[in-house]
């Protein structure tokens, strides 16, 4: 069974089109795939004119992953655990809003889409998280 799709038409200014063309060239993917990837982010964030918010209306900040890792690494272990818990609550709250509270795949896709970690599941159905994601206590 094929997923149902919808065609949308959006007018964009020339500068935005040039940005998409540059990304297309750099990544070697179609403009449609680039746009789909951006639209996929609407599952977890809302871009307003002058802000970025989570779907539960919290302020959202986009930072470099390497900078985030550095911040986590210099944080005390107990705070790393608390921070990991806060991220888990955010993922769970987002899933709840989307009526996907029990959908583990949705939550893993959300983590993947937000850049937390890639969705790796082994042959025994265990989730594998890269050591590069963060310090051990944060991941736990």
Strand content: 5-15%
Order of helices and strands: HHEEHHHEEH
N-C termini distance: 38 Å
**Count of discrete alpha- or pi-helical segments spanning 4 or more residues:** 6
Helix content: 40-55%
Largest sheet: 2 strands, antiparallel
Question: Would you mind describing this structure in some detail?
Answer:
The protein is globular. It has a domain at 65-139. The mean pLDDT is 83. Helix 4 (77-97) packs across helix 5. The protein is 49% helix and 7% strand. The chain has 140 residues and is mainly alpha-helical. A two-stranded antiparallel sheet has the order 1-2. A two-stranded antiparallel ribbon has the order 3-4.
Quick tags:
about 140 residues; mainly alpha; two-stranded antiparallel ribbon; 6 helices; 4 strands; about 5% strand
Brief summary of the model shown:
The protein has 140 residues and is mainly α. The protein has six helices and four strands. It has a domain at 65-139.
């Amino acid at each position: 069974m094929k997923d149902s799709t919808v065609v949308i038409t959006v007018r964009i200014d020339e500068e935005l089109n040039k940005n998409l063309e540059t990304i297309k060239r750099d990544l070697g993917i179609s403009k449609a795939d680039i746009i789909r990837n951006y639209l996929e982010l609407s599952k977890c964030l809302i871009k307003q004119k002058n802000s970025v918010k989570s779907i539960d209306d919290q302020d959202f900040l986009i930072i470099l992953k390497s900078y985030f890792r550095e911040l986590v690494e210099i944080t005390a272990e107990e705070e790393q655990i608390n921070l990991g818990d806060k991220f888990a609550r955010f993922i769970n709250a987002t899933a709840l809003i989307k009526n996907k509270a029990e959908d583990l795949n949705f939550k893993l896709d959300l983590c993947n889409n937000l850049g937390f970690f890639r969705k790796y599941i082994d042959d025994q159905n265990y989730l594998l998280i890269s050591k590069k994601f963060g310090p051990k206590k944060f991941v736990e």
